[in-house]
Write a structure and sequence with these properties.
binds NADP nicotinamide-adenine-dinucleotide phosphate, Rossmann fold, six-stranded parallel β-sheet, single chain, 2 domains, alpha/beta
């Protein structure tokens, strides 16, 4: 069976997988949402922009004769992941999710766990503090109800629109980040509180390790629920699934 893989991307792991697929001489395409101005090179042909919901993705899978889908999106990209489960079920295309285990709280961590972005916004209804808000550009507007804080924001692209916070500082950087550099960042900006998604993985962990070292509290946003699907935690395991699936003829 000739492979024609679709990788739903937007993460370092998906990019690593794309390189490995290209090196293995397999055919594939990486799909990005198209939100980042200059995406990192992906190693495989790229398509960009939404598919148009479940029906749009199912249509794309049929029209381009995709044989396998690997969902390598971020754990908070819940809509895309749910759509992939539904569209693959509808078309009979095998689906694997390349996922990262969530971060676990250790004895030296001071986490305030919240179920979602709204929970983090509610937690920030407190006296003014110096806050590193590491939730990504798409969610910043939701934090407008708490303009009393001085916010440190780290974004992949400079903000295109004015930010809803009177006091803020933007660092443009796409990582991966290191604990030592984030220790310096948090110290230089006299940060008192970090807000983070529980992204898992190593690249985004640096700020959590730095917060631990400084004894800072972290408002940790739990992951959204995603329908059950087959999962692998490494590029090697994902490739093994792909080879196994093609050998079985599925
Ligand atoms: P989302 O809320 O799950 O997706 C919203 C819609 O955006 C989807 O329904 C789909 O539109 C489109 N979309 C999302 N990912 C896509 C992809 N890889 N290819 C084509 N269309 C895509 O997703 P999100 O949280 O906005 O994330 C968007 C992208 O940024 C993803 O590639 C994700 O891996 C990456 N990312 C997200 C985060 C995060 O914290 N959420 C962090 C780092 C990177 P249609 O319904 O029209 O198909």
């Amino acid at each position: 069976m000739t492979v024609n893989l679709l990788i739903l991307g937007g993460t370092t792991e998906a990019r690593r997988l794309a390189s490995a697929v290209a090196e293995a001489g397999l055919r594939g395409t990486v799909s990005l949402a198209g939100r980042v101005e200059r995406p990192a090179p992906q190693g495989l042909p790229l398509r960009s922009g939404g598919f148009g919901g479940i029906a749009g993705l199912a249509g794309y899978l049929r029209e381009t004769a995709v044989t396998h889908v690997i969902d390598g999106t971020h754990p908070f990209a819940a809509q895309m992941s749910a759509n992939a489960v539904a569209a693959c079920a509808e078309t009979g295309v095998p689906l694997l999710a390349l996922t990262r285990p969530a971060w676990e709280q250790g004895p030296e961590d001071h986490w305030i766990r919240v179920p979602d972005i709204a929970g983090a916004v509610a937690e920030l209804d407190r006296p003014a503090a110096r806050v590193m808000l590491a939730v990504g550009r798409m969610h910043l507007a939701e934090f407008a109800p708490n303009p009393q804080h001085a916010y440190l924001l780290r974004l992949v692209d400079p903000p295109a629109e004015p930010l809803p916070f009177p006091e803020h500082h933007v660092v443009v950087d796409r990582g991966p980040f290191t604990r030592d550099a984030d220790l310096k960042l948090l110290t230089d900006h006299r940060i008192e509180l970090v807000v983070s998604k529980n992204a898992g993985g190593s690249g985004a962990r640096a700020k959590i390790d730095a917060a631990r070292a400084l004894g800072l509290p972290v408002i940790m946003i739990d992951r959204p629920a995603i329908p059950p699907r087959a999962e692998a935690h490494s590029v090697e395991a994902a490739l093994a699934w792909l080879h196994g699936a093609t050998e079985r003829g599925v």
